[in-house]
Amino acid sequence: MGTVITTVDFGNHVACDFCSEEHSADKTALGGLLLDTYALCPKCVAGAGNELKPSQIKARAADMETFHAFVIRIRAGNNTMTITSK
Known about the structure:
The structure is a single chain. By secondary structure, the protein is an alpha+beta fold. It has one domain (about 5-85). Helices cover about 20% and strands about 25% of the residues. The chain is globular, with a radius of gyration of 14 Å.
């Protein structure tokens, strides 16, 4: 059996990569950051406190930017996940 590659398009759906909380376009939670390749919602950023290493932070939400808008912006239209299985 060969390798199977499946691509899942999440469209406008956004969830925190740490707590899995969903953030729809109408949710008003402000902030968030990209930690390596993981999007952290404002609640998880606050909970991480001093454990975040500056070298791991790749991007931060702009002032007054919702977490949803931030994630959609940093994904630059590629809101997909590719799954490879054998």
